[in-house]
């Protein structure tokens, strides 16, 4: 089962920031796809909740140096 979840992000300054987040999330087992929009300030992640938890996605984004809001 794959679910989609949107997260609001702060601290992004450019499209390279969005790419950094996508690459970090897609390295997680269970994440099928990550699309981060710098202009909208959000991530749309598709993931298997049996393999990776929402909390882990947030932790990866935070470790990359960005803040997740409105969770």
Write the layout of secondary structure elements.
Blueprint: E1 3-10, H1 15-26, E2 31-37, E3 42-47, H2 54-63, E4 67-69
Antiparallel strand pairs: 1-3, 1-4, 2-3
Question: Briefly, what is this?
Answer:
By secondary structure, the protein is of the alpha+beta class.
What distance lies between the first and last C-alpha atoms, to the nearest angstrom? 21 Å
Rg = 11 Å
Structural class: alpha+beta
Main sheet attributes: strand count, strand direction, barrel closure:
4 strands, antiparallel
Strand % is 25-35%
Low-confidence stretches are none
The H-and-E topology, N to C, reads as EHEEHE
What is the top-level CATH class?
Alpha Beta
Portion in helices: 25-40%
Note the total helix count: 2
**Shape, principal axes of CA atoms:** globular
Strand order of the largest sheet: 2-3-1-4
**Averaged pLDDT, please?**
94
- Label the CATH architecture: 2-Layer Sandwich
Looking at the structure, the CATH topology is Alpha-Beta Plaits
Strand count:
4
Taken together, the total number of domains comes to 1
Describe this protein's structure:
The chain starts with a strand and ends with a strand. The protein has a single domain, classed as Alpha-Beta Plaits (2-Layer Sandwich), CATH 3.30.70. The chain is globular. It has a four-stranded antiparallel beta sheet. With 71 residues, the protein is of the alpha+beta class. It contains two helices and four strands; from the N terminus they run βαββαβ.
């Amino acid at each position: 089962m794959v679910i989609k979840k949107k997260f609001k992000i702060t601290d992004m300054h450019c499209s390279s920031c969005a790419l950094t987040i996508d690459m970090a999330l897609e390295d997680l087992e269970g994440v099928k796809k990550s699309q981060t929009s710098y202009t909208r300030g959000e991530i749309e992640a598709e993931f298997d909740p049996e393999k990776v938890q929402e909390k882990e996605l947030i932790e990866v984004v935070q470790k990359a140096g960005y803040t997740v809001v409105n969770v």
